[in-house]
Amino acid sequence: MENVLRPLLVLGGSVLLTLALGWIVDLVLRRADVRHPESPLWGLLRRCRLPLQVVVLTALLRGTFRQTRWPVIESHHDGIGRALSLVLIGAGAWVVVRMVSAAVESTYARYAASTRDAARIRRVRTQVTLIMRIVTAVVVVVAVAAILLTFPDMRAVGTSILASAGIIGIVAGVAAQSTLGNLFAGFQIAFGDMVRIGDTVVVDGEWGVVEEVTLTFLAVRTWDERRITMPVSYFTSKPFENWSRGGVQMTGTVFFQLDHSAPMGPMREKLHEILLACPAWDGRAWNLAVTDTATTTMEVRAVVTAKDADDIWTVRCAVREQLIGWLVETHPYALPRISTDLAHGLLPRGRSPLVSERAERSERAERDAREPGGTPDRDQGREDTEDHENSERPRTGRG
Fold first, then answer.
1. What does the alpha-carbon distance between residue 164 and residue 110 come to, in Å, rounded to a whole number?
2. Backbone dihedral region of 286: left (phi > 0), alpha (psi from -120 to 50 degrees) or beta?
3. Nearest-CA neighbor of 103 among 131, 138, 137?
4. What distances in angstroms separate CA 75 from CA 25, 60, 78, 321, 356, one per listed residue?
5. Cα 215 vs. chain centroid, distance in angstroms?
6. How many CB atoms lie under 10 A from the CB of residue 141?
7. Which of 210, 239, 50 shows the shortest CA–CA distance to 129?
C-alpha cells in the first residue's frame, strides 16, 4: 500500500500545488489589471502563467522524485535528475523571455499612447523590437551554456575550447565577418535612427514600406505586396531614399505633354478645382507651369502636396486622370497631334480653316476653267474681282 500512496502523494501533490499556485498568480494579476487599466503590464504578465507552472512543477519533481522509491527511478535517478534539470533550465529561460517581453511591450504601449509624433513612435518600436531580439538571443545562449554544463563530458570540452580560444576567435571572426558586420549594422540602424519600421523607402529602384527590422536583415513591403529582404549592412554602406525622414509630408509632380495652343489659364482653374475636391490633398501648395518646350509640344508640370507618400500617389493619379479627361472633352486641340496633308482630311499646322477654304476654291476654279465647257466658280470670280477693285482703288491717308 505504501508503494502506491507514496508516488501518488509525491506526483499528485506536486501537480495540485502547481495548479493552485498558477491560479493564485493569475488571480492576482487579473485583479491588478482591473485596478490599473492605464498600464497593460499586468495583463501581459498573465502570459507567464504556463511557463511559470512548468518551472514550479519541474522544481518540485526535481526535489522529490526520489521519494517515490520506485525501483525504476532508483536505478535511473541520475538520468531522470538530469532530464528534469534540463527542463527546469529551459522553462526558466522561457519565463524570463516572457517577463522581459511583457515589460518591453508595456513600456512601448504607454509611450505610443502618450506621444503623437508618428516618427518617434516608429523609432521606439524599431529599438524595442531589436532590444527584445537581443535579450532573447542572450537568454537562449545562457540557457544552452547552462544545459551543456550539466554534462561532465562537456566541461572537459569547454576547458579545451577555452584553452584554444584565441585561434578559434580568429577563425570565427574571419568566417563570420559578414554576419558580424550585419550585427553591428543592426545596432547602428536601431539607435542611429537611420531607418525605422513603417518608413517609406526607395531601395534599388523599388518603392516600399519597412515592415521588419532584425539584427541581420531588413524586410521591405512593396506597393504590390512583394517582400524585399536585404541585409542591414546595405543601409549603412549604400545611399537610399527615406521619404519619412524629416516629416512624412511630400510634394509630387505630374507632367503633361501638350500642344502649344493649350489654355494655361483655364487649366490652372481646373487643377485648383480638382484639388479642392480631392480629400488626399492637404491644401499646402499647388502650381501649374510650362517647364519645357519642343518643336511640336510643350511640357506642363503640375505640383501638388499631400500629408504622406500614399496620399501623394492618390493626388497625382487623380490630377492626371481628371485633367486629361477635361482636356479631351473641352479642349481637344490642346492634346498632342500629328501633322498630315490635306489628302488625309486634316489641316496642316499653322493654317487656319479660312485660308484652307479659299485655297480649295481657287484650286476648284482653276480646274473648272481648264475643263471643256467648264465655268469658273462664281463666288471665286466675285472674290477675285473684289480683290482687283480693292487693289486699284486709290488709298488715302496721312503721309
1. 48
2. beta
3. 131
4. 37, 20, 8, 84, 116
5. 18
6. 11
7. 210
Hey, what's the cell of 46?
A: 498573465
pLDDT tens digits for range 132-169: 887 888 888 888 877 777 777 666 555 554 455 455 45
Q: Using 50, 70 and 90 to split pLDDT, how confident is the model at 208?
A: confident
Instruction: Give pLDDT, residue 322.
Output: 94
Lowest mean pLDDT segment, chosen from 222-226, 272-276, 374-378: 374-378
CA atoms within 13 A on the CB side of 121: 12
Eight-class DSSP state of 341:
-
In Å, how far from its chain's centre is CA 98? 29
Helical H segments across the chain, by residue range:
2-35, 41-45, 49-64, 71-75, 77-114, 118-149, 152-163, 165-175, 177-192, 234-237, 264-276, 309-330, 353-370, 378-392
Q: What is the pTM of this model?
A: 0.45
Distance between terminal CA atoms of the chain?
146
User: DSSP secondary structure string, 115-134?
Assistant: ---HHHHHHHHHHHHHHHHH
